[in-house]
Every structure is written in C-alpha cells, then in structure tokens.
Amino acid sequence: MEQAREIASSGPLAAVLAGEWSPGGAVRSRKGLRQAVRDTLESLYHPVSSCRMGTDDEAVVDPQLRVRGVDGLRVADASVMPTLVRGNTNAPTMMVAERAADLITGRTVDPALTGTA
Ligand SMILES: Cc1cc2nc3c(=O)[nH]c(=O)nc-3n(C[C@H](O)[C@H](O)[C@H](O)COP(=O)(O)OP(=O)(O)OC[C@H]3O[C@@H](n4cnc5c(N)ncnc54)[C@H](O)[C@@H]3O)c2cc1C
C-alpha cells in the first residue's frame, strides 16, 4: 500500500489521479493500514492449483489429468492448473474439461497427431 501510494503520487500518474479512494489519505500509520487491509481484504474468487498438474513428484495429476497413483481417476477442474492464469479462470476451466473429454473418449484435435501441423 505504501508503494502503491508512492507510485500514484509520482510521475505521470499523479497528474491524472484525483485522490485516494481506499483506505483514504487520512490513514497513514502502519497500524491503520494493516487494519484497513484486515477490514477489506478479499480473494479474487480464482483459487487454483490444489491438484496441480505436472510431471514432477509433487504433482497430483499427470498431463493427461490422471491422478498419480490411483487408477481410473482424473481431475478436470481449476485445481489442476499448475499456476494461476493471468486472466479469469472460468474459460480455461472449461477448456480443461473439454480436454478431459477428449482424453477420456480418445478424440484428438492435436494437429501434430492428426498430421495437419
Ligand atoms: C463470486 C465468483 C465470481 C467469479 N467470477 C468469474 C468471472 O467473472 N469470470 C471467470 O472466468 N471466472 C470467475 N470465477 C471463477 C470461476 O467461477 C471458477 O474458476 C470456476 O468455476 C472453477 O471451476 P471448478 O470446476 O474448478 O470449480 P466449481 O465451479 O466450484 O465446481 C466444483 C463443483 O464440485 C461440486 N462439488 C464439490 N464437492 C463435491 C463433492 N464432494 N461431491 C460432488 N460434487 C462436489 C460443487 O458443488 C461444484 O459444482 C468466479 C468465482 C466466484 C466464486
């Protein structure tokens, strides 16, 4: 918050910003800033990676979404994303689901595998 204030009050940004909206310029102390964070902090509703996909020993699912060490079980949701995507998570989650359907049914649209690459 202190760095954000520093950035906002210097350079070209300072010329276009009207004033601090939250927590408001009157809150200056670290204690006050901490309290403001505690009072207003929330997640961005994009939890991911609790069943991270990967090829290393710590990965929960492999690149085919199969749970490592368990036969016949795949995970196809946002939890398999190795890291948080830069944008929103709903569309990539649906793509993971589409990919899972392809993997389960054996359908492929991979150009490298269909010979169209
Ligand atoms: C308030 C909010 C706003 C969001 N806004 C956006 C947005 O604008 N754009 C965007 O791209 N993303 C948005 N997201 C994120 C997006 O909704 C999620 O990333 C996405 O839905 C994750 O999909 P998922 O399948 O991993 O989990 P979920 O959609 O949570 O699906 C999990 C499903 O599993 C079911 N389930 C859980 N436990 C069990 C069980 N034991 N047995 C059976 N079923 C079970 C649940 O009922 C649920 O239906 C938002 C999320 C929230 C919370």
From TrEMBL:
Pfam families: GMC_oxred_C. SUPFAM superfamilies: FAD-linked reductases, C-terminal domain, FAD/NAD(P)-binding domain. Signal peptide: none annotated. Residues 3-97 form the Glucose-methanol-choline oxidoreductase C-terminal domain. It comes from the Bacteria. One of its GO terms (molecular function) is oxidoreductase activity, acting on CH-OH group of donors. PANTHER family: CHOLINE DEHYDROGENASE, MITOCHONDRIAL, GLUCOSE-METHANOL-CHOLINE GMC OXIDOREDUCTASE. Belongs to the GMC oxidoreductase family. This is GMC oxidoreductase.
